[in-house]
């Protein structure tokens, strides 16, 4: 058992709480005093642990509410004692509405007819429901399109306004590399806001920007920005310099063996050694979330502060070239992050090696077999 982490797992993902807090405070100081932050805690906060992160963030005055993707994620936060508003970014399913209302979960209106469905549940329970209105300005996942969709919503809302509280209106940019499209989407969003205003619908909170939009187009920050990746790592290719990575994924060496030139490693002998070398087996594989594309390009891990290439990977174990490295069975291996000895391997760097845009995809892929820890 590792003394520092006091766990029995083969691996652990360790988040530095101080850096997590420092990151969000750095972002807040760069914003207008009238702009809030909405932490996006979906997918268990990209694998880092949503409940603990929410408890760190909730006392902060500039944190307006929390966003998640699914009702189950919202319920987990509510059941853990989170009091601030929690809203679901996607359309809620009809059979989930009653539970959302009972637990004071804010629902997104991303299709026509949903307001009436929610109101019907509210009438039976005698409770009101909070909603945020999603405007489809071009991403075309969910949302009310300006025009007939929005007009239908206005009619529905006016028929059911006793039961429905509008807490916000939002949209999402589709392609931040296409500036004219960004401008067009924002124009559609403004047009939709005016439609709602003209209909007499009060809108307490307006937001359109996520992490990257808030970095590249701060003029669209409005009253709030929704942040997921930006809370835990900087922009992958255009870093602003005030955000540090917060998480380190570590496992252990389980075996060390000298291997000969020509030996085949892994299932099907896919990797053939081109020289004599020392090979370490580590206690995780693709079943734990180790990215096979990283293995395929022999991306590095950190052992004793040194970058060592991955060689092959099975479901529960992987092989690493440790030739000339001072290591033994039980030593820690850092897949990304900080190694505790001054070494650092950026998850953003690794993600870009395989053409992935954001390193949080690596954290999100980590399986339940990894212990999730904060220090």
List the defining traits of the structure above.
375 residues, Lyase, Ornithine Decarboxylase, Chain A, domain 1, 2 domains, 9-stranded mixed β-sheet
What does the model show?
The chain contains 13 helices and 19 strands. With 375 residues, it is α/β, with parallel strands linked by helices. The protein has two domains: 215 residues, Alanine racemase (TIM Barrel), CATH 3.20.20.10; 128 residues, Lyase, Ornithine Decarboxylase, Chain A, domain 1 (Beta Barrel), CATH 2.40.37. The mean pLDDT is 95.
Briefly say what this structure is.
The protein is an alpha/beta fold and 375 residues long. 30% of the residues lie in helices and 25% in strands. It has 2 domains: 18-232, Alanine racemase (TIM Barrel), CATH 3.20.20; 247-374, Lyase, Ornithine Decarboxylase, Chain A, domain 1.
> How helical, in percent, are the residues?
25-40%
- What is the CA–CA distance across the termini? 18 Å
Strand-residue fraction?
Answer: 15-25%
Class based on secondary structure composition and strand pairing: alpha/beta
CA-based shape: elongated
Mean pLDDT, all residues:
95
**Helix segment tally:** 13
CATH topology of the largest domain: TIM Barrel
Write the layout of secondary structure elements.
Elements lengths: L10 E5 L1 H13 L6 E4 L2 H5 L3 H8 L8 E3 L2 H9 L6 E6 L5 H6 L3 E4 L4 H12 L3 E6 L13 H13 L3 E7 L8 H20 L7 E2 L3 H6 L7 E4 L1 H4 L14 E13 L4 E2 L5 E2 L4 E6 L9 H5 L3 E4 L2 E8 L4 E4 L10 E7 L5 E2 L1 H7 L6 H5 L6 E4 L1
Parallel strand pairs: 1-19, 2-9, 3-4, 4-5, 5-6, 6-7, 7-8
Antiparallel strand pairs: 1-10, 10-13, 10-17, 11-12, 13-16, 14-15, 15-16, 17-18
């Amino acid at each position: 058992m590792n003394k520092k982490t006091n766990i029995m797992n083969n691996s652990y993902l360790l988040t530095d709480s101080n850096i997590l807090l420092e990151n969000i405070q750095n972002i807040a100081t760069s914003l207008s005093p009238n702009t809030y932050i909405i932490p996006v805690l979906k997918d268990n906060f990209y694998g880092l642990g949503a409940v603990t992160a929410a408890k760190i963030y909730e006392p902060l005055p500039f944190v307006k509410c929390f966003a998640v993707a699914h009702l189950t994620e919202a319920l987990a936060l509510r059941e853990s004692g989170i009091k601030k508003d929690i809203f679901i970014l996607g359309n809620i399913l009809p059979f989930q509405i009653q539970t959302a209302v009972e637990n004071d979960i804010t629902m997104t209106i991303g299709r026509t007819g949903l307001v009436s469905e929610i109101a019907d549940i509210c009438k039976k329970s005698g409770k009101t429901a909070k909603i945020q209105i999603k405007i489809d300005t071009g991403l075309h996942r969910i949302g009310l399109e300006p025009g007939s969709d929005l007009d239908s919503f206005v009619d529905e809302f006016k028929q059911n306004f006793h039961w429905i509280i509008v807490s916000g209106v939002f949209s999402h940019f589709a392609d931040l590399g296409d500036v004219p499209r960004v401008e067009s989407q924002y124009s559609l969003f403004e047009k939709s806001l005016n439609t709602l205003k003209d209909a007499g619908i009060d809108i307490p909170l307006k937001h359109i920007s996520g992490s990257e939009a808030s970095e590249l187009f701060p003029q669209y920050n409005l009253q709030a920005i929704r942040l997921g990746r930006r809370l835990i790592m900087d922009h992958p290719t255009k870093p602003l310099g005030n955000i540090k990575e917060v998480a380190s994924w570590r496992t252990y060496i389980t075996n060390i063996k000298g291997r000969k030139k020509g030996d085949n490693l892994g299932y099907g002998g896919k990797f053939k050694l081109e020289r004599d070398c020392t090979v370490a087996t580590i206690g995780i594989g693709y079943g734990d979330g180790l990215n096979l594309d990283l293995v395929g390009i022999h991306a590095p891990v950190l052992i004793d502060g040194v970058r060592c290439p991955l060689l092959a990977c099975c479901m529960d174990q992987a092989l690493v070239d440790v030739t000339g490295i001072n290591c033994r069975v039980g030593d820690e291996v850092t897949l990304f992050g900080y190694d505790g000895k001054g070494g650092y391997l950026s998850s953003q760097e690794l993600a870009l090696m395989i053409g992935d845009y954001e390193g949080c995809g690596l954290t999100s892929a980590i399986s339940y077999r990894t212990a999730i820890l904060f220090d």
